[in-house]
Amino acid sequence: MIIIEVKNITGTLTFDEERHQMIRTLEGKEEAFLDPLLQVRRQKNLLQKWINAKGYPETPIETLVVISKLSTIIHTSNPSVIHSAYLPFKINELSNKYGGQVLGQNDLLRLGQELKQAHTPRKVDVLQKYKIKKENLRVGVHCLGCRALPMIRVYGKWQCSFCGVVSVDAHIESLRDYRLLLGNVITNRELRGFLQIDSERIARSIIQSLYPVGKTKGRTYRLDF
Ligand SMILES: [Zn+2]
Questions:
Q1: Among residues 56, 157, 164, which one has the least CA distance to residue 102?
Q2: What mean pLDDT is predicted for residues 54-74?
Q3: How far, in Å, is the centroid of ligand 1 from the Cα of 43?
Q4: Shared-domain flag, residues 209 and 189
Q5: 44 burial class (0-12, 13-18, 19+ CB within 10 angstroms)?
Q6: What's residue 216's pLDDT?
Q7: What is the domain extent for residue 194?
Q8: From ligand 1's centre to the CA of 108, what distance in Å?
């Protein structure tokens, strides 16, 4: 297993492994950050404990700190700190380091499921954070090809008036946006407003694919994808 801690920081980064600091120099100013090497070490310990508690065999865990901006200058001799462009090669390097398979196919699948179930996404109120009013959000189903708004419904499919892309499920992406912006439950009315659907029938067919929460009256639907 590889834990990858991605840092999106510009400037020059100096890793001081004796004092466990990461120092960023930008425009002549120095700023200290929590050492990501320490951060991944902690994550590794926690994951190791979690995996052991679930009864899996001892699984090797590698950790990497990946700097996503290619313009960032890195000062460290630690091979676990890399630029993002090197990541595929680093993964090859690490997989060559380990010979046999520790977990069988079934264990891997079960572990994947358990990790997914235990995952708790961080909740951020995006509208509040960026001071955007709900009324100012641009609604409609956006085109997966050219991002234009809104796609129109033609014979049971979404079609882009700008680039001509046709999709059966472009609304899923828009509902994902809804979930990130406004929360993971939606009412019939909110769904029709956000996707700009006039037809009760189309709204119903989309809603049937969602998980209902609560009673029929004032029912909400969980956006679970
Ligand atoms: Zn388009």
A1: 56
A2: 93
A3: 41
A4: yes
A5: middle
A6: 66
A7: 126-222
A8: 39
What's the whole-number mean pLDDT along residues 15-24? 92
What residues have a C-beta under 5 A from ligand 1, the ion? 143, 145-146, 148, 160, 162-163, 165
Which pLDDT tens digit goes with each residue over 38-51? Answer: 999 999 999 999 99
- Is 13 found in the same domain as 104? yes
Distance 117 CA to ligand 1 centre (A): 35
**What does the pLDDT read at residue 178?**
94
- Examine the domain organization and report whether 86 and 193 are in the same domain: no
CA angle, 124 then 130 then 135, to 5°: 100
Cα 107 to averaged position of ligand 1 atoms, centre (Å): 42
How remote is the CA of residue 205 from the centroid of ligand 1, in Å? Answer: 23
What per-residue confidence (pLDDT) applies to 212? 74
208 backbone dihedrals φ, ψ, rounded to 5°: -65, -20
Weakest mean pLDDT among 3-17, 121-135, 183-197, 199-213: 199-213
